Automatic annotation (TrEMBL), chain A:
<protein>
    <recommendedName>
        <fullName>Ubiquitin-related modifier 1 homolog</fullName>
    </recommendedName>
</protein>
<keyword id="KW-0963">Cytoplasm</keyword>
<dbReference type="Pfam" id="PF09138">
    <property type="entry name" value="Urm1"/>
</dbReference>
<comment type="function">
    <text>Acts as a sulfur carrier required for 2-thiolation of mcm(5)S(2)U at tRNA wobble positions of cytosolic tRNA(Lys), tRNA(Glu) and tRNA(Gln). Serves as sulfur donor in tRNA 2-thiolation reaction by being thiocarboxylated (-COSH) at its C-terminus by MOCS3. The sulfur is then transferred to tRNA to form 2-thiolation of mcm(5)S(2)U. Also acts as a ubiquitin-like protein (UBL) that is covalently conjugated via an isopeptide bond to lysine residues of target proteins.</text>
</comment>
<dbReference type="InterPro" id="IPR016155">
    <property type="entry name" value="Mopterin_synth/thiamin_S_b"/>
</dbReference>
<dbReference type="GO" id="GO:0034227">
    <property type="term" value="P:tRNA thio-modification"/>
</dbReference>
<feature type="modified residue" description="1-thioglycine">
    <location>
        <position position="103"/>
    </location>
</feature>
<dbReference type="GO" id="GO:0032447">
    <property type="term" value="P:protein urmylation"/>
</dbReference>
<comment type="similarity">
    <text>Belongs to the URM1 family.</text>
</comment>
Automatic annotation (TrEMBL), chain B:
<feature type="binding site">
    <location>
        <begin position="75"/>
        <end position="79"/>
    </location>
    <ligand>
        <name>ATP</name>
    </ligand>
</feature>
<comment type="pathway">
    <text>Cofactor biosynthesis; molybdopterin biosynthesis.</text>
</comment>
<protein>
    <recommendedName>
        <fullName>Adenylyltransferase and sulfurtransferase MOCS3</fullName>
        <ecNumber>2.7.7.80</ecNumber>
        <ecNumber>2.8.1.11</ecNumber>
    </recommendedName>
</protein>
<feature type="binding site">
    <location>
        <position position="92"/>
    </location>
    <ligand>
        <name>ATP</name>
    </ligand>
</feature>
<keyword id="KW-0067">ATP-binding</keyword>
<dbReference type="GO" id="GO:0006777">
    <property type="term" value="P:Mo-molybdopterin cofactor biosynthetic process"/>
</dbReference>
<keyword id="KW-0511">Multifunctional enzyme</keyword>
<feature type="domain" description="Rhodanese">
    <location>
        <begin position="315"/>
        <end position="412"/>
    </location>
</feature>
<feature type="binding site">
    <location>
        <position position="253"/>
    </location>
    <ligand>
        <name>Zn(2+)</name>
    </ligand>
</feature>
Amino acid sequence: MVWVYLQFGGGLETLFDSVKSHKVEIPSKKKEGLSDRTTVKGVINYIQKKMLKKNPEMFLKGKELRPGILVLINDIDWELGGKEECIVENNDVVLFLSTLHGG
Amino acid sequence: MEGAWRGGGLDKEEVERYARQLVLPSFGVANQRKLKESSVLVVGAGGLGSPVCLYLAAAGVGRIGVVDHDHVEKSNLHRQVLHAEDQVGTHKAVSASISMHRLNSTTTVETHVDGFRPKAALKLVEGYDVVVDASDNPATRYCVNDACVIANRPLVSGAAIGTDGQLSVYNHGEGGPCYRCVWPDPPASGSCQRCSDHGVLGVLPGIIGTLQALETIKVITGIGECTSGKLLMFDGLCTGFRTLKLRGRQASCAACGPEATITRDTIAAYDYEAKCGGPMHDRGEGACLKVLGKDRRVSCSRLSERMEEAVGRGGDRDFVLMDVRPRPEFDFAHLPGSVSLPMEDLEEAASGGEGAGLGAYVDNGKDVLVVCRRGNDSQVAVRRLEEAGVANAFDVEGGLQSWSQTVDPTFPLY
Ligand SMILES: [Zn+2]
């Protein structure tokens, strides 16, 4: 099991009862000699199965994350760390962010 | 006389005016001169553009261009502090120029009253050193970005809605990404919140716009470190700032990549409204949805008649008046005797979820007249009620906006 903080911003929180931060426990496969870990893909999968109640099309496109949503692991763009293959470990913060437009 | 003084190129008036920042070791006269010699284009004279214009004019930027297409409305005043009560109805760019001139008559202000359009985008952006995106819709944001990339201008971008804000400097510095590198795809249209629908706490764009003015001054003078390759997030409810590290320039980017498809030759004809998330403005739209046929719709004047008839019967209404707007809107103004059932709750009640279902709202046999702000949601609601077995539901055409315009002008128009 991996404990992670899932956060949603830029309006995405409205898909999750308008709560911006959630602490969740995500099942993971135990590997010899390694700490418990999952990937961003595993996190998205968990959100799809356990958290996303309504308007899944605002968050997903098929099984993948909807284009236009930025993912940051511990405040660093997932593009800098392998996108959906980014490793997520205990106490990591995974932020899903949409761009704001109002002015 | 021979005793005249020497300085860094500013006259007595200027030295006295800008003295408090001239004495700053990290700023000084050389940087003040850079501001004086610089020009900035501010796209949008609204909530963000207000502090941007005011602080840049006050700071002594030599030439400021303001782009807008709208006129000042009463509902702008709580956040768009460039504009005052006596400027309601004035074009925003003109109003902005009046306010800036009042503040600093030595700054040259240029007004661009037709808004930011793809056709004129490049020419507009090329006329200035730095561009500030203070617009209010995704299509304009993509268009401003693309023009900045093509013209090689730094872009100071800010956004604010509700109680949240974002800030970044794009297309600037070694390998700094452009807006499209970070956000290659526009957000889902339903998740794209507009100030006109979703609301914004007035001070929020004030905070983000003020930071945009700071970043602009840093881009012009080169002092400090810009928010380039970074995104600053502000959460107004917990007063929290957070700096996120962004990717660098992307080879796959349609604007700044080696195989860019949006270029000097194509930008003017690029269909931003179709490809980048909707109209290039955030005006409160009138009823535009047509879900229902004529037999399912009643006019505001007919609703008014039925209300009057009921008063004649001693208040006994032969219909239910259902208001499907979000609760905060119902709380500040609603029609007498209307019941509040926001769209979300309606959806839940209609799908037979927990709660009492629709029974608590629908009085057996009576017509259900559904009203919302502009007459769009109410049509969707009527369709939903029909599906849930309520046969005699009707849409009040044009919503409360039309009510205010055609029946009761004392009802707030917002
Ligand atoms: Zn780019």
